[in-house]
Known about the structure:
It contains 21 helices and 15 strands. The protein is of the alpha+beta class and 671 residues long.
Amino acid sequence: MVLGGLALAFSRLIDNSVVVLENIFRHLELGESPAVAAEKGGQEVALPVLAATLTTVVVFFPVTFLYGASKYLFSALALAVVLSLFASYLVAMTVVPLFCANFIKGHSVPASPGHAAPRTWAGQFNDWFNRRFNGMLDRYEKALKSALLRPVATVAGITGVFVVSLGLLPFLGLAYFPRTDPGQFVINVKAPTGTRLEVTKQWIAKVEQIIREEVDPRDLDVIVANIGITPDFSAIYSSNSGQHTAFVQASLKEGHRTGSYAYMDRVRRRLRAELPQLGTYFQSGGLVDAVLNLGLPAPIDIQVSGSKLKASDKVAQDLAARIRKLPGVSDVLIPQDLDYPALELDVDRYHAGELGLSSKEVMDNVVTALNSDGMIAPSYWVDPKSGNEYMVTVQFPENEVKNLAGLRAIPIRGPNFKDATRLDSVVKIRQLDSPTEVDHYQLRRVIDVYVSTRGEDLSAVTSSINAILDKAELPEGVRINLRGQVQSMYASFRSFGLGLLLSVLLVYLILVAQFKSFVVPSLILLAVPTGLTGVLVLLLLTGTTLNVMSLMGIVMMVGIVVSNSILIVEFTHRLREDGKPLLEAVVLACRVRMRPVLMTSLATLIGLIPMAAKLGTGSEAYAPLARAIIGGLGVSVVLTMFIVPAAYLIVYRRQGDHALPVEAASAGTMP
């Protein structure tokens, strides 16, 4: 994340220096010496550049309102950008004017028709570029004057474009975090309940064969399968819940040509077509998803809780059947089973007491016979030579208990009796269905319904699930809660929205202090809606979801477009203080500030193109951020150069077409 922040910071690092340099060269064109031009050029833009820097820094305030893992992910990025912006301001206000004063010897005027063209290649290119750029400025000035003839219509038209673009918002998917390629995938497999371990092993062999056939051998690295479960402490670390369950992990080689999710789709189709009797659930198995899902295997976890497991399971099974039919749902899994074949041992306490045994001691004998005494009475032997500790366990021979008759014949010996008795003399054994696992959340027993989506978009599937939950008829005492990544997503969006509103308010207050007016900051902030229009359009065209990364891109875009707007409004004020008429000052300010606005914006856009194009490992995570900035900044650069001067003209033309008094500006009496 820090590297992503540095990549973005590098594109913004030269912005302040560009503004200062452009202003210094403007003074050089007026015939001033390099030392005077450096001094005046730096002084004139010191406050607007500071205001632009502070507004960009302040927009990172929403990071403090983020929820969960996203807060820690973006803290490093925000810190990297903020520090680089302050460093950029320091360099622009000190080093740049110093170097200009000492190393620039003069300013070469572009060749005119009456002068000879420069002989060097660099000079010829510079002359060619200036002619083309000045021609573009002439065309822009002509278009701006036409727009300023009807400033109200210009502002209304651009505002209308923004309002229309808000209609694109429902078509954007919502996600918590961009989907990244983990280079692996995991398949949770469930055979019919009660399937023996050796049969499950045969099914898993077929699953592995399908993976080998669907995954390119050049991409496939290794396949690891974990089948069944051992009833000891190792069961804590396995997602398996019985001998009929397993999980298969397929790892891909570094630099694999096809993505993990594409291979998951291929294998999923084969398994559903050829092994429909198996229940499968695919997950990426990546660390990012594990953190975002709060340790759960699914982005959406529907928890059905209640005091009666059968009632909860019936509700969960009904919900799972209806959710599987929803568009956008790829896999649905209920990890718990309530119909697993089991044996119930009912100890006859009277007869056990005659042998001097308690119920616990009887069951300890059974556990020792079947699974060893390592669970109930662990013991160690220390090698006297090496000092190594070895676990010592006691267990019946493996073939001693092969069936129910062998279980009934397990010998039970009392402490005061020499002869042993059979287990069935003190225990009644009955067959029944039992849950494979009993999960709890906040002391309540729960049945989980894991739901994964086909793409990044969680909002559409979640909305459909909520509609199903609202219509569900729940038995008494049964409750349904929605957990997982979707829970963190909505919490982060709410807190981020609150932080964004507060950051805009802080930006407004900074601009009020800068311009000593409550109206001027409103004109500057008109650049923000135009940027949002570009964000919505580009995200929709590229199929990018609205997630915390793209929201962070919107935050950064707001700071950038506001700084561009500040340059225009501040220079317009200065020209009016120098005696320029209102319309002339507006047009001239936009023409002069077009160069630094374009240079700083293009530097940012070009620097973010590799990130937006997903070039490099892990770049999927940063692409939405870069695309949001590119879309917002690209559209805002064009529309801001029309809406801000038009709005400025509307506000100030009621004063008449005359210059702004210097005394009024310095006294802070502007409207």
